[in-house]
Predict the structure.
Amino acid sequence: MLDRFTAPVGTTLDRFIAQKQEQFPYATGELSQLLRDIALASKIINREINRAGLSGIEGAAGQENVQGESQQKLDVVADVRFTRALQKGGETCGIVSEECDNIIDTGNPHAKYIVAIDPLDGSSNIDVNVLVGTIFSIYRRKSPIGTPPTMQDMLQEGTEQVAAGYVLYGSSTMLVYSTGYGVNGFTYEPSLGEYFLSHPGMKIKDTGNIYSINEGGYYSFPQGVRDYIDYCKEEEYSGRYIGSLVGDFHRNMLKGGIYIYPATSKYQKGKLRLLYECNALSFLAEQAGGMATDGSRRILNIKPTELHQRTPFFVGSPKMVQKAMDFLNEEEEPFLAQKTKKMKVSS
Ligand SMILES: O=P(O)(O)OC[C@H]1O[C@](O)(COP(=O)(O)O)[C@@H](O)[C@@H]1O
Ligand SMILES: [Mg+2]
Ligand SMILES: [Mg+2]
C-alpha cells in the first residue's frame, strides 16, 4: 500500500488531490483535474437542488430516458451540467450517462479518460426533499488517443476503474471517492464554496444490523432473498430504506449494513445499472473493506455487454453480504418452513 500520506481533517479537496498526486511521480495531473471538474459540477447541482422548489425545476421533464423511465427536470439539469463540466474540463473523451442513450463524445479526442455517470440518483425523492445523489466511475480509455471514444472504452470491467465516487445532496453535501488507495469523504461548506476532508480513510464494519431493501416486492423476490429478509427479521435487524441508492449505501458505509436490490418480476435482471451505479459503489465498498455481488458473482468482475445493462445488487458489510449469498445459493426448503418444522418438533 503506497499511502504514506494522511491528510488532517479540514484539508480542502483541492489540496488533498494535489498532495495525493505528488505521491505518484509519473502523474500528469489529468485525473486530478477530472476530479476537480466533477467537484465543480456537483457544487452547481447542489445549488440547483437546494432551491429547486423556488426555481421551478421540480417535477417531470415530460420525456423518458433510454430505460423508459420518466425523466425529472433535475435529472436533465444534472446531466447537462456534468456533461458540460466534463467537456469544458478537457480530460474526458467519452461519457456514458443514465440520461443519454448512446456514448457522449465530448469532442476531446486527446483526453485519456472515460466517465460513466448517474447524474442524479434517487430521482423518485427529488420532489419530496429527501436526499439524492450523483454516482461516477472513471476509466482510462482503451482506444488510441486522438480518436473518438468507442464501445470498447465504455464496456470495461469494474476492476478497470481508476477512480469512483458519489456525491450526496443531503442534510449536508458530501463527496466521497477513491482512486484505489482507500476511501475519503469531504463535506461541502457552501459559504466558502469548498469541500473539506471530514471522513478520512472510511472503513465499513464487518457486520451490522441494518438491512436495506424495498420489501414492497417481497413476493416477487427469489426465495433465497426472502429467506434472508426473514432471517434479518428473526435477528431483529432494523429495516432502513431511503429509496436513494447513494443514501442507503452511505448510511451502511458509516454504520454497517447491507443494501439489496434483487431480481424482481418487474426487473428480472435487477433494477440498478452496472456501469454507472453498481461498479462505482462496488469499488468503494471493496476499498472500504466491504463486499459487492450480484448474488453469485463479484460485481467488479462482470464483463459489461451493454451501456445500460442492469444487475441484481448485494452490497455492504462483508459478513452480511456473504450471509445473504448463502441463503441465495441454498437449495433447502424456505427458511420459515424449516423454522416452523423445528418449532413443531420441539413442541
Ligand atoms: O423505488 P425502488 O424500486 O425501490 O427503486 C429505488 C432505487 O432506484 C433508484 O432510484 C435508481 O436510481 P435513479 O434514481 O438514478 O434512476 C435508486 O436510487 C434507488 O435505490
Ligand atoms: Mg441511480
Ligand atoms: Mg439517476
In short: The CA atoms of residues 59 and 72 lie 6 Å apart. The pocket of magnesium ion (ligand 3) is lined by residues 75, 98, 118, 120-121, 123 (CB under 6 Å). Residues 30-50 form the longest helix (21 residues).
